[in-house]
Amino acid sequence: MNPLRPIGAAFLGFLAATGQLSMFTSTAIWHCVRPPFFFRLLARQMIDIGYYSLPVVGMTTLFAGMALALQTYSGFSRLSAEAESAIAKVVLLGITRELGPVLAGLMVAGRIGAAMAAELGTMRVTEQIDALTTLSTNPYKYLVVPRIIAGLTMLPVLVFVGDIVGVFGGYIVSVYKLGFNPGLYIKASWDILQAIDVISGLVKASAFGFIVTLMGCYHGYHSKGGAQGVGAATTNAVVSASILILITNYIITELFFST
Amino acid sequence: MTDSKTTSRTAPMIRLDNLHKTFGSKTVLNGMNLDIPQGSSLVIIGGSGSGKSVTLKCILGLLAPDEGDIFINGESTLAVFAATRERTNRNIGMLFQGAALFDSLTVWENISFGLMQGEGMNRDDARDIALEKLVAVGMERKDADRWPSELSGGMQKRVGLARAIASNPAIMFFDEPTTGLDPVMGDVINDLIVNCVRELGATALTITHDMASARKISDRIAMLYQGKIIWTGETQDIDHCDNAHVDQFIHGKIDGPIKMNLRVA
């Protein structure tokens, strides 16, 4: 057998998948801006993504902030006498610019992206999506649009809360474990904070929300082959969303902070 | 893109014109032609993998044929705007093989889904119609607030039937309506289908390989083999037809022109 054949087949498969994803994305965006809208479903998705993900995101960013403070102290105390203000700055910038949005995005990918892929995948293999079409209801509008809009809007909210909790985690470790002055810690944090730090994190969050929901919907919508297909769709949704989050994170960081 | 193409005034309710559909190297439909007159109940029989479900999905707009055309009520349903397709679908009721009830909705919400989402009916009126249809398929009003997962297979099929008739459609499709049911429940579903189609005066198309069901619910039967209709006729004539493929299929014989790709150990 020609050894180039599997490479060519894989490349053609990649192109086909890219084309299918591009079509899915453009169709979904098109339906996002055209009525009718299913507001009840949108509200349900917003609650599911925004409210029920709060504990997961809160816990993740809290402990990330705590670990960051501790790690920064152990490293910076060797280099600088002003570890107190350095830790506050590192925790604040680290959480708002990077850790908050990335950790929230990855957590939501695991929690929401997987659930969306499983739900839509099950609907696909049990012909529920076909049933929607026969009942004169566009599956994109009914299933995909509410999820994408909810992801776009609720992940920034989650990240904003996660930023506060993460910075608070750093404060707890710095003040109660390392014995820093609380007033100085807060002042150092406040002095370094700029609007762009938070805004860049929220822009990332919105992009990650779009990626997570799009991947969840795409893989679920196109799943096939019964339970095994639904399982594969769930895995693919989480893996592809996680990779795209990390790639997009770099691109947005480059756009905001490259000088 | 054209909004619609119109055939002659004497066109049947559903016309399949030279349909071709291929998946990779596998040809499923190979020039299929079929007319279904208004008010008739036609059953397409055929073995597994013969293209029955693909035919149905093409008519419903869930799959696009590679070649050929599909006319419903004289108008082409291919290459039309989405709004036109949705308007066509409002006249169609479909009972899926596995009922395809929405897990996240109660029984009455499933039945009235098309009325509320497709036609914009308010919830109170839609619930009244759902209860009426629920009774029509032999279930009780108290079942209306149950979830699909709480129902048996036969009850799910009946709810699926209630959903299919909720908007009083002019055309009804049934995909393997008795598959997975015991013979008694299968017969109950057959009776319900006959009654519903008769009361609505609908044109019905069923795909099945259950001959008992086919004989009971059809006026006419067509046999699909290798992507083409190889025989069509009145239901009562099927036992006397001289087509060897049909004879082998309806009697379930191993020997005959239909060859199964079986590997004997």
Brief description of this entry?
With 259 residues, chain A is an all-alpha fold. Chain A has helices at residues 4-32, 39-51, 54-79, 83-125, 128-134, 139-177, 182-192, 195-221, 226-257.
Can you offer a commentary on this structure?
- The complex is a heterodimer of chains A (259) and B (265).
- Chain A has 259 residues and is mainly α.
- Chain A has one domain.
- Chain A has helices at 4-32, 39-51, 54-79, 83-125, 128-134, 139-177, 182-192, 195-221, 226-257.
- In chain A, helix 4 runs parallel beside helix 8 (195-221).
- Chain B has a domain at 1-91 and 205-260: Rossmann fold (3-Layer(aba) Sandwich).
- Chain B has helices at residues 52-60, 82-89, 107-111, 113-118, 123-136, 153-165, 183-200, 211-217, 244-251; strands spanning 14-23, 26-36, 41-45, 67-72, 75-76, 92-95, 171-175, 203-207, 220-225, 228-234.
- A 6-stranded mixed β-sheet of chain B has the order 6-7-8-3-9-10, sandwiched between helices. A 4-stranded antiparallel β-sheet of chain B has the order 2-1-4-5, with helices on one face.
- Chain B is globular, with a radius of gyration of 19 Å.
- The A-B interface holds A 122-123, 126-128, 130-131, 133-138, 142 and B 57, 60-62, 82, 86-87, 89-90, 92, 94, 96-98, 100-103, 113-114, 117-119, 163.
Biggest sheet overview of chain B? 6 strands, mixed
Alpha carbon gap, first and last residue of chain A: 51 Å
Low-pLDDT segments, ≥5 res of chain A: none
The 3D shape of chain A can be described as elongated
Report the major sheet of chain A. none
The percentage of residues in β strands of chain A lies in: under 5%
Category from helices, strands and their pairing of chain B: alpha/beta
Q: What does the secondary structure layout of this molecule look like, with pairings?
A:
The complex is a heterodimer of chains A (259) and B (265).
Chain A: H1 4-32, H2 39-51, H3 54-79, H4 83-125, H5 128-134, H6 139-177, H7 182-192, H8 195-221, H9 226-257
Helix pairs in contact in A: 1-6, 2-6, 3-4, 3-6, 4-6, 4-7, 4-8, 4-9, 6-8, 8-9
Chain B: E1 14-23, E2 26-36, E3 41-45, H1 52-60, E4 67-72, E5 75-76, H2 82-89, E6 92-95, H3 107-111, H4 113-118, H5 123-136, H6 153-165, E7 171-175, H7 183-200, E8 203-207, H8 211-217, E9 220-225, E10 228-234, H9 244-251
